[in-house]
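Protein data:
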Amino acid sequence: MQKCFAVCVILCIILSGCGVSSHFETESTLTLEELKNEFHNYDKIITEKEDKLKKLEYEFDEDLINTNFKEAKTFILELENQITECQAQLNNQTAQNQEKILPAIRDLINNHIIKEHGQTQIQAEILIKNIIDGITKQNTVDQNKCDQRIAKQNDEINILKLDIQKLNNKKTKITDLQRLNRNLQNEKSQLEENLNAIKLQLNSKDERILKLEQNLSLINDNLKLQNDQKDSLPESCLNLKGLQLIKIPRSTISLNVSCEMNGNGGIIIQRRSNNKYDFFRDWNNYRRGFGDLNDDFFLGLENLHLITYSQQHELIVYVYDEWTNEWTFAQYDNFLIGNEGNNYTLESLGTYSGTASDGMRKSLNRKFSTHDKNNKYCANFLSGAWWYDYECRSSNLNGKPGKIYWNDWYSYSYSYSNVIMTIRPKNLNTIKNN
């Protein structure tokens, strides 16, 4: 565009040298001075647009460094819009100046050539056409350069977009890695907390193991003492009262038992007096025994099997009749309990005698039952554990309060509150007691 202005200036100088006066005729639309000013203004506008474009380029470079990717994208978009706007303004300005200046040049040349030199209208038109063609050609060259420059800027913008996209991808990967790192840190913290908790548990377990080892040591000492004393342990409760440690005859097994207070050799195997302990229990409880030997308890089916299989034993059942305020009893001279593999079956009772009814007879050859094994129906129906028959008509001395029955005495309408079951060797003369 600067070259275009230069051509026009040269043209004006030539015209002035040919005798063009400093003022045109009154019919001229513009004076030469005004035409120069118009070109000058036009060139000034172009310069301002180019300066603005350079400034935008500089601001783009600076902002690209100092802004984040999101702002850079926004800036590139604004820059593209401004370039488009600048190009449109240039094209518009060029068209406006051509519409404004070229008619002025045409009128100026027409007036000068025709009036001053006497040239014909055709010759003037040819000259004007050559001048306009020159200006148009120069404008085309300048426009092509401007287009090339804009295309170059667009290429650079596209390259920047690709770079920004790559950087955005890297930024996304970094963000993902940071998130992963935070997750790993959280997991690490959780693992450390779990480890500390495990250490505390281990310390607690170590303390408990130490206590157990100490208790085990005491038990071993007691066992050693018991083994040393086994030969001197009594084999029954004959002449003994209360809590005693006895040895099961013809075995190395010792057992804490509660002896009858009359000293007649009876071992209490079950007692019901105050309902302190719940007797509606599962198989394992009845197998190993439960309660307090000084209070209500059941000695345990396994212990009953070992004792009754060591030699012949009698069973004596005492029930307290609250209507008569008297104790009655039922005695059997050959009480025998099988092993666990045989479900602790009541294998023998022997001969019955006593003042209470024969309440054990229906239980003969029956398996012991609890609410979780064997005859579960009767155990649940009678809320207890016993050698039940199939009709649930047997006794139920291990039932819950209100269901402690001794069969055929007062039928099932009467429940006892005090019961004692004892066993003792059949022939006490063969028992060694020290």
Remarks:
- The chain is about 55% helix and 15% strand.
